[in-house]
């Protein structure tokens, strides 16, 4: 009886430790949410004309209490850009998080493995040649072409990664090769493009939120909202995969099916933002690592953490892009590259990355 009582006490102590850990992670998510709300408000307040946070809050919740100019700037000019930054950041971060999970690769992201470059090439192909990669897609030529090319690159990476003897390093090198391949194809299209088409293609290469519109936001948000329940449904299986394919299979997880489903959703999450705002690199790499460092691998916390970290990262980047030179808005892809490249190097050189 004494042994049973001691075991019961130990089990209850373990449960209490787990509950305390869960409460701490929920608190972290709450703090990240508050930080995202503050960043969103600052993004609305900063620009060529700066307003106080009080003016922004009043414009959001009591528009009649502010001037017509403040209301028009906040709602018509800055709101679409600020919302698009959050939605795109969340989409790219979630895509990178799940790609790192299923490939067991700390350097995996839509940008580093060439998926974003493939989507950019598909979008440029639509802009320069107006050739649809899918029939009956003329009305949505740019996003559909971007998705098709991203899907091709994703499936290529998926099937290569399944080959016997292929290591994590091989997948990374393969992704780098895809980046150079699609960048070369993109340069070829730029060489052939007219002056008007060339200026539009350059937009994709730098990435910018300035052309954000509500229809684009709703489409991107819809894709994100469709993907999240699919990932949430497979949360336990994705967490098990991080323990290794053999262990996940012993738990009854169909690793091949989960990996293929996830890669298809990732291609959609990567392609739609790129088709609207251009190539924005390293958000899908940095965002998941921030979430992993503070929340761990459990998908119940890691998934919302990746959403919040990616959204917060791109929202802060949007603020920085308007703050470097007053009156000038830098392409957001340039800022994310400046932040992401040192982080990428640190992952390559760290012992932690080699331990995956």
What does this structure look like?
The two termini are 44 Å apart. Residues 351-355 have low confidence and may be disordered. Helix content is 78%, strand content 0%. The chain contains 15 helices and no strands. It has one domain: ABC transporter involved in vitamin B12 uptake, BtuC. It is mainly alpha-helical.
What is the highest CATH level, the class?
Mainly Alpha
Rg, alpha carbons: 22 Å
Let me know the average pLDDT.
Answer: 85
Number of helices: 15
Strand count, sense and barrel status of the largest sheet are: none
Transmembrane segments: 26-46, 77-95, 107-128, 134-159, 171-193, 213-232, 264-286, 301-321, 328-349
GO cellular component, one term: plasma membrane
Family: Belongs to the binding-protein-dependent transport system permease family. FecCD subfamily.
Keywords: Cell membrane, Membrane, Transmembrane, Transmembrane helix, Transport
Concise synopsis of the structure shown:
This protein is mainly α.
Keywords:
disordered C terminus; Iron ABC transporter permease; mainly alpha; 356 residues; globular; ABC transporter involved in vitamin B12 uptake, BtuC; transmembrane transporter activity; transmembrane; single chain; ABC_transptr_permease_BtuC
